[in-house]
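Practice problem: predict the structure.
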Amino acid sequence: AAAVGEGHRGRHLVVVVDARRLMPYLADAVPGWFQATVALYDADGNEVAYADDDRFDPDPVLHYRIPKDGRYVVEIKDAIHRGRDDFVYRITLGELPRVDRAFPLGVRRGVKTTVALTGWNLPKKSVDIEPNDANLGIRALLSDFGAIGTDSLPLAIDELPEVVEQEPNDTRETAIGIGSSVIVNGRIDRPGDRDLFRFEGREGGRVSAEVLARRLRSPLDSVLRLIDNEGRVVSENDDHEDKGEGLLTHHADSRLLCTLPRTGTYYLELADVQGNGGHEYAYRLRVGARQPNFELRVVPSTISALRGENVPITVYALRKDGFSGEIRLALQNPAGFRMDGARIPADCDQVRLTLGAPTRPPEGPLRLVLEGRAVVGGRDVTREAVPADDMMQAFLYRHLVPAKEWIVVVAPRGWRSLPVTPRWDSGVKLVLDASTPVRMGLPERFAADKVEAVLSDPPEGITVEKASRLGRELRLMVRADSSKVKPGFQGNLIVNVFTERRAPGNNSGQGGAKRRVPLGTLPAIPFEAVESDAPRDSAPAATSE
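Answer:
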């Protein structure tokens, strides 16, 4: 495709392509992503500028200072001349301001900091940032500057003291001394460069060191090493996956969590793993004691339910700096909704539970808010869950892609409810290598005599051997295999219930074929696996918020 326009001498043309950003994930790997390229031609058909990426970003950005007035053509195509319906793009072009990079890559909360800007057609080369009310973490604080692309050029906000790296610091003899808790803003400013930082540590001390670079639009692919005074590498990390960055397909930032083996001098060495470097290879190195914390993601981001229906959802705990405690879940604004199994056990990174829709549905879509509460470092911490969707790309890699809101719609018609009454006080103890009865009361109007129970995405080694109706009771016989389930393992069972019905007969009076009919999903059943001689009155609480 091509666009034609008039160019004027001395103007700086900026062409920004959005392609991968519009379709970040594909269901298949062949032919794969749209690999956009953009070229600029003059009136004689000569190619005067070309771009096929923006450093590590596959969406190209082209900039060109026009030497003379005349007619110019912008061309966009796939790098290997493919095409299909989902190869969509959006082009922004003109004499427009665009910020290419900023330094430093972050600021300290409450401290006025001058951030230098590099780009094209910028009205000024720096901007003062003083985030007093901003939450800690990565924020797009340049979005009000008025330049194209600044929304994707974020800054990090922290509370630690900050220093700027100074050269030379390539050897242990020239390493920069730093405190136990500090943020270093620096650059790998030439190919082959490495930056070393020196600190004193005590045996058994815990050190956390993390690089923020690729997540802040720097091309640096960092590698981080912790070295003792004898030159031995104590710990090393190349890539650390940040599951909170759902749209990042290459996790190139490094992170170390290490317990110091002895008292003495230590060195942190930071470099580009491919030996690259340059003025744009900026980084933000955070060094300090571990700060346990957590974030939450709730999947899926949109839910459609029938009245009274129990819908399975998944909540992910993104644990940080060794936090391993239990997280209690609750709805901030229940609005008639109910959660069962609303608890992420200690040392667990995710849990499936059920969201129960009200029998009197709200009018139209409703925004729900899920919160998690935990004790972190002796203090009560509450975190709001970010709605997300579990997306796959290239048949293999999975990402939690964030959404703006958690939206639930309950159909005004239709009904799918299993109003059972749990016959336990605090969840279920599953005795290893035995059939454990799980009993639930049934309402009088429950009409199905024959029932079948099927576990939805069950933990490995846990099965339902039998389901039966005994009067006004539904009983499941659940087995946990000790070769696959360890004592103390906790979670929730999500159970779908079916019955069998015969289709209406034909004109000859013969009955129709039997068919399987879904009755619905049971409320999530909290469980803990125990040895056969364990007491059976201390299972985890079955919560309903």
